[in-house]
Amino acid sequence: MIWFVGAGPGAPDLITVRGKELLETADVVVYAGSLVNPELLMWCRRGCETFDSARMTLEEVMEVMIRAEREGKRVVRLHTGDPSLYGAIREQMDVLRREGIAFRVCPGVSSFCGAAAALEAEYTLPGISQSVVITRMAGRTPVPERETIESFAAHQATMVIFLSTGMLGKLSEALIAGGYAKDTPAAIVYKATWPEEKVCRCTVATLQETADGYGIRKTALIVVGRILEGGYERSRLYHPDFSTGFRKACGEDMKDE
């Protein structure tokens, strides 16, 4: 069995309990060293072999994991955040399927959740936005034409943009072209939950200027939307006039009598 494990957004104690237990019992760990906090390796037992996949090709990663599994070793593939987001795990799982090797996935806390915590923000505020678009700018890795920043910006939903810190000037242009006003609130969250975390609030028009001012070039998420402003409608879920399957609205008890 090979386990794909979400390392969480950065802080070592934000890995899941299951993920920590898997690291503690692993014989071999292949971790994404460009993004995973190396302090997470402290959970590994003495004698555990570790490999930094930042310096490896897919073929080299798979060779290490397959060989170890066939030697009867317990293998963990440690990905940053949650493996399902920009983790390139599908291609790894397909190789394992072809080789007849069993695997499972242990989900993790995504960095977009860490960014919300750093911002003290709720992505889905009533009356403001009830949807979150998680996307990225097209760079060396393209995105489908139907998934441009402009097309998503037209919805005016909350946007969380990965892997785009080096293209903030173009990102601003695309967001504005898609329909966001220049003064739409935005934020750059650098290394959410790490000790060196930075939260830089700005607007859609000043993303590049803000990043330059703080010296941020990579490892940051961009959050865009009116949820960063402050105004919103009260949630109906906890409103005294709103009935749920667990609570009657105020006055309903008297109506039943």
Describe this entry's structure for a reader.
- The protein contains 8 helices and 10 strands.
- The chain is globular, with a radius of gyration of 22 Å.
- Helix 6 packs antiparallel against helix 7.
- It has 2 domains: 2-106, 3-Layer(aba) Sandwich (Cobalt-precorrin-4 Transmethylase, domain 1), CATH 3.40.1010; 111-228, Methyltransferase, Cobalt-precorrin-4 Transmethylase, Domain 2 (2-Layer Sandwich).
- The protein is an alpha/beta fold.
- The strands form 2 sheets. A 5-stranded parallel sheet has the order 3-2-4-1-5, with helices on both faces. Strands 6-7-10-8-9 form a 5-stranded mixed sheet, with helices on both faces.
Overall pLDDT level = 93
Assign an overall shape. Answer: globular
Into how many domains do the coordinates divide?
Answer: 2
What is the C-level CATH assignment of the largest domain? Alpha Beta
Q: Per CATH, what is the topology of the largest domain?
A: Methyltransferase, Cobalt-precorrin-4 Transmethylase, Domain 2
Order of helices and strands: EHEEHEHEHEHEHEEHEH
Q: Bin the strand percentage.
A: 15-25%
> How does CATH name the architecture of the largest domain?
2-Layer Sandwich
What are the defining features of this structure?
alpha/beta; globular; Cobalt-precorrin-4 Transmethylase, domain 1; 5-stranded mixed sheet; Methyltransferase, Cobalt-precorrin-4 Transmethylase, Domain 2; 2 domains; 5-stranded parallel sheet; 257 residues
Could you provide a short overview of the structure?
The chain has 257 residues and is α/β, with parallel strands linked by helices. Helices cover 27% and strands 19% of the residues. It has two domains: 2-106, Tetrapyrrole methylase, N-terminal domain (Cobalt-precorrin-4 Transmethylase, domain 1), CATH 3.40.1010.10; 111-228, 2-Layer Sandwich (Methyltransferase, Cobalt-precorrin-4 Transmethylase, Domain 2), CATH 3.30.950.
